[in-house]
Design a protein that fits this description.
heterodimer, A: three-stranded antiparallel beta sheet, globular, B: mainly beta, four-stranded antiparallel beta sheet, 1 helix, 6% helix
């Protein structure tokens, strides 16, 4: 199905179109990251409807738009977004592969201090893996950490 | 969905009166998320306007909006289910215009990976 010309259409309206016309895609990829040394590893799971939008193309705004909005919200005295038009008027990104979509999602939903220097320090702070590589139950969930055996000088997500 | 537009400030019924369309626009649900918190890694059973779920540990979850809210003052409704652990309750932890952090508890007040967690959001979009 061809995506309508959505630039200038409110992002919410685009999501309504996607919900009605696209089947959700549950990715097997999981993003494991450590935000703080004192906390257990966090796991980011892509939303099926969002992934469908990413694979379809022409719906989602460039990830940089979210960074701009985050900057606005971090300013002192912020009361409400006044640059929401960036979400709606910026040219939507083209269709992504599942792997590209995961990279986009990391840059959207993971803290920047994690993904910008994910490979600095003694071990990776962020790893992309498949669902099967994680424990199938949540036993000892609060003790889950990225293994120390992963080196930062290799493609750890391979 | 047709992409044609009907622009109107008011909806008027023949006998029941009229309604300003801003009540429809502002009053509509802006997103929802249903997921099983007790799955190995939680994934959405159904959702709208969400980009992903972040599992932060036992009973600690976060979701992110695709179409951001205008600020962090949006409304939300949370629900849980009855399970072997008792009546589940969900409470919000912190939030921004783009994310919502949820904590799920069992009836004893302990963080718990509830089997069914439902969130819905209402408010103004960015």
């Amino acid at each position: 199905m061809k995506t309508p010309q959505f630039q200038g259409t409110h992002l919410f309206d685009r999501l309504c179109w996607a919900k009605e016309n696209l089947d959700g895609v549950q990715s097997d990829y999981r993003v494991v990251y450590e935000d703080s040394v004192d906390e257990c590893a966090k796991i980011l799971v892509p939303d099926p409807n969002w992934m469908a939008c990413a694979l379809q193309g022409g719906i989602l705004p460039p990830v940089q738009v979210y960074w701009e909005l985050a900057k606005d919200e971090a300013k002192e005295g912020f009361t409400k977004h006044t640059r929401g038009y960036l979400l709606h008027n910026t040219k939507p990104v083209e269709a992504m592969t599942e792997e590209q979509a995961i990279e986009y999602l990391i840059m959207k939903d993971c803290p920047q201090h994690v993904w910008r220097d994910w490979d600095s320090g003694n071990k990776p702070k962020l790893v992309i893996c498949r669902k099967e590589q994680l424990p199938s139950t949540r036993e000892w969930r609060n003790a889950w950490k990225i293994t120390d055996e992963l080196a930062t000088d290799e493609t750890v997500a391979a | 969905m047709a992409l044609g537009k009907i622009k109107a400030d008011t909806l008027e019924h023949s006998t029941a009166g009229s309604l300003d369309t801003k009540f429809v626009v502002n009053g509509s649900l802006k997103g929802y998320l249903n997921f099983a918190g007790n799955a190995g890694t939680p994934s959405a059973t159904d959702s709208f306007n969400q980009s992903g779920i972040t599992d932060g540990g036992t009973g600690i979850f976060a979701c992110a909006f695709t179409s951001s809210m205008s600020n962090a003052n949006f409304g939300h409704c949370d629900g849980g289910d009855h399970s072997a652990a008792g009546v589940n309750t969900n409470k919000f932890d912190s939030r921004s215009a783009s994310t919502f952090n949820c904590r799920a508890y069992d009836i004893g007040g302990n963080l718990n990976d509830n089997a069914y967690i439902s969130l819905s959001f209402i408010g103004d979009l960015a």
